[in-house]
Amino acid sequence: MKSFFKGVRKHIGKLDAATLREQYKLVSDEFDFFETVFRAIKEGIIVLDEHGSVTYCNPFAEELLGKGGVEQLGVVPGARAKKELTLTYPEERMLELQTMPLERRSTLVIVRDVTGERRHTEEALVAAGQSAVRDLAAGVAHEIGNPLNALSLNLQLMARERPGDELIETCKHQVNRLDGIIRDFLQALRPGKPCLVPGNVAEPLAECLKALKVRFEEKRVRVILDIPRALPVVAMDRNQLEQVFFNLFKNALEAMQDGGTIEVQVSAKDMDVEVRIQDSGVGMDAEQLKHLFEPYRTTKTGGTGLGLMISSRIVREHGGTIGAESEAGKGTAFTVRLPRIEKRIRTLK
Ligand code: ADP
Ligand code: MG
Fold first, then answer.
1. Which ligand is closest in space to the CA of residue 310?
2. Given 189, 216, 245, which residue is the final one in a domain?
3. End-to-end alpha-carbon separation of the chain, Å?
4. Candidate from 308, 310, 315 with most ligand 1 atoms within 8 A of CB, to mutate
5. Among 6, 11, 164, 263, which is 20 to 30 Å from 84 by CA?
6. pTM for the structure as a whole
7. Position 347 in a domain
8. pLDDT grade, residue 222 (50/70/90)?
9. What is the pLDDT of residues 23-52, one digit of tens each?
10. Is 244's C-beta closer than 6 angstroms to any atom of ligand 1?
11. CB count, 10 Å around CB of 54?
12. Host H or E run for residue 337
């Protein structure tokens, strides 16, 4: 169909009135057809212009977004991105957002209501988490953790005595991998509601960066920080946020084979505090981005595909949003937004 219209467009100057009328009817029928499809479809479809203003919005998108409209989605025009968020009004809904650039600098946004899907996954995990097998599994995982720590410590000591020894490096790498698997596994099994207290997001971030310092150095990754001294307070569970940032940094590290940079940018917005973690790693293609945040989706041998699911759950339970923008070969940026306790009221001019 597309090539047919392209053909018509090419020769439009040479068409007589009757043919033009005929072609116009074809186009208009086609338009009606798509309009009907877009009206019936159970996915929100929104098109934004280069400034982020809505040029098209199908009925399901209107229904999903209610009065708050598109503004509450925080879409960056022109980006290829995926995002998860929870709307609390008029009822709690979990939404999945995909944005992609279109021709003429507009942006397509597809919104899916994943409330049922996510609840189902979480209920399944909780159910699995309540069984005796889970306690056994968690117990075993925990028990494996201790000797792993001892192994890791001893390997570090050995590495100091014999720097550059390949066998030691391989062992270290494998121990780190096991450690990661067990960490993800335990986090997925033991969700635990966040215990929210007022705090500064820079603290769990700094804690994480400190813990990972050696790994950044080992992989020749430069970390660039842009964190304001004073930040508005957010309601947070410090330990859980540390887990989120740890997962994001770990993924960023794993996405970089041959060194690179990670930029950490924290900024205060009117309604929330935003943490952006951008890496110069392998990035993701559209297909990977589409399935991001879904459990057990991994592209790594030895990955669990649980890290981002856990992170997204934690951020959502903080009332925040998590999203990613990525391009294969260029890198990835994850953005976590956490609601401020005291919003800044903007006076209307
Ligand atoms: P895992 O790390 O165990 O694979 P995650 O849930 O943490 O599980 O990540 C899921 C997948 O998302 C990864 O396997 C990877 O393909 C992709 N991914 C996540 N973060 C990044 C990143 N910073 N750069 C490139 N790909 C990423
Ligand atoms: Mg991971």
1. 1
2. 189
3. 49
4. 308
5. 263
6. 0.69
7. no
8. very high
9. 889 889 988 998 888 888 889 999 999 988
10. no
11. 14
12. strand 331-339
User: Is the minimum distance from the CB of 278 to ligand 1 under 6 angstroms?
Assistant: no
Residue 307 beta carbon below 6 angstroms from any ligand 1 atom: yes
CB of residue 280 inside a 6 A radius of ligand 1: no
User: Are 313 and 207 in a shared domain?
Assistant: yes
Do 211 and 323 belong together in one domain? yes
Flag whether 227 is in a domain: yes
Shared domain for 212 and 328, answered yes or no, is yes
Cα of 86 from ligand 2 centre, angstroms? 22
Are both 128 and 215 inside the same structural domain?
A: no
| 165 and 248 within one domain | no
- Give the residue from 113, 136, 165 where a domain finishes: 113
Decide: 288 in ligand 1 pocket, CB within 6 A: yes
Same domain assignment for residues 223 and 272: yes
Q: How far apart are CA 109 and CA 106, in angstroms?
A: 10
Q: Which of 298, 314, 325 is the best mutation target for the ligand 1 pocket, counting ligand atoms within 8 Å of the beta carbon and taking the most?
A: 298
- Assigned domain for 344 exists: no
| 305 domain-assigned | yes
Q: Give the number of the atom of ligand 1 that is nearest the alpha carbon of residue 293.
A: 6
Residue 349's pLDDT band (boundaries 50, 70, 90)?
A: very low
Note the pLDDT tens digit of each residue in 321-330: 999 999 999 9
Same domain, 234 and 310: yes
57 touches 43 (CB < 8 A): no
Range of the domain at 47: 43-113
| For helices 115-130 and 132-161, angle between their N-to-C axes, nearest 10 degrees | 90
For the chain, the domain total comes to 4
- Say yes or no: CB of residue 199 within 6 Å of ligand 1: no
Q: Is the pLDDT of residue 267 over 90?
A: yes
Please determine, for residue 124, whether its predicted confidence score (pLDDT) is greater than 80: no
Buried b (16+ CB within 10 A) or exposed e, 317-338: bbbbbbbbbbbeeebbbbbbbb
Q: Is 300 in the pocket of ligand 1 (CB under 6 A)?
A: yes
In this structure, are 102 and 136 located in the same domain? no
Alpha helices in the chain (DSSP H): 2-11, 17-40, 59-65, 115-130, 132-161, 166-189, 202-218, 238-254, 286-290, 307-317
> How remote is the CA of residue 288 from the centroid of ligand 1, in Å?
9
Identify the top-confidence range among 74-78, 140-144, 344-348: 74-78
